[in-house]
Amino acid sequence: MRLLKFLWRRVLAFDRVGARIPQLIQVWLIELLFVMPLTFFIGKVIDIHGAFGVEGTGERLDGVFWGALVISLVFGSLFVRSLIRPRVVQGSWTPVVHADIGPVTVDGGNRAWTVTYPYLTSHPSYALLLLLTAPIPAVMFAATINQGDSTFYFRVTGIVGLTILALLAVTRVLAWYVFRFGRRQLDEQLQDMPVSPRRLGWEIAWKPVLVVVLLIYAIVCIPLGAMWLKEKRTIAALPVVTVSDTDCPGSYFRVKGTVISQPIYWAPRGTGRGGNNYAGAGVLVALPSGGEALLLAEALSVADFRGMMAHLHNGALSAAAKVIDEFTASQRQYYGFDESAFPEPTSAGRVMLLLSNP
Q: Is Transmembrane one of the keywords (predicted)?
């Protein structure tokens, strides 16, 4: 029981989180509706004009993006106002004390020491809420980093979004520590407090926001992390492929070996914008057990293939793949698979695999 009370009040600060949630949601929504529409607008402008060596589309800016800019300006004005003219909000904190009564230790809040702590709506702790928005542009960037330039809009929008979020965090810090908007009024109210302003700031402002962000990340990341670890364990348990496994089409194996050819990319319907959008890819791998593996990638797996090839160490390759016995007509038509693009198989044999996870 003592441990639970310690976790509830001293570590997780649940006695203060509940009262803060409505305000935290309000602050987060204002920042979300300021950042993301502005991100989409700027990303589209860059996409039209081109950047980072990618040629622009040259198309007109659609009315949807102008609407996004208007929404961003409305909520951006609310964000700026909250920094320049912050409101004073009251919070309370009751320190936890314990007393030994015979063999029993009793914990409880000392109401006589309850402190009402005023803090500003421009407090820098709100910058932590930007971490709840950050996964949106981060995923847009990470998911397209190995894609061709046909996905340039999403990639550059992710970069813009992360940049804007970083600037907002810096703005909050500057407004609090450098420009000190509203700090004089706050400091006057804190002069007669029995607890130091630094500790009150941590207990009332920083800790509840930090706990909310950590809990949200834990709720999302723990299940995702468990699934990721399960997938890694499943892949680690797969047998290493050999040329004799050509008789096991549809079965999954680990591919370990040394790359012995340049990667080949196919684009039956054209390479599109930037000339680097591919529908299929393949590379030859020398197997330690002898023979070769022709490792292929189709459609969305091409991005994983490119990322894998970009991170080879001394030509050593490790991947999970599914054995196939032949190319289907659809694979030849849509993905461009062509075994003649590679040298003839050696006498030791060759196994064909499709890059994929079980």
A: yes
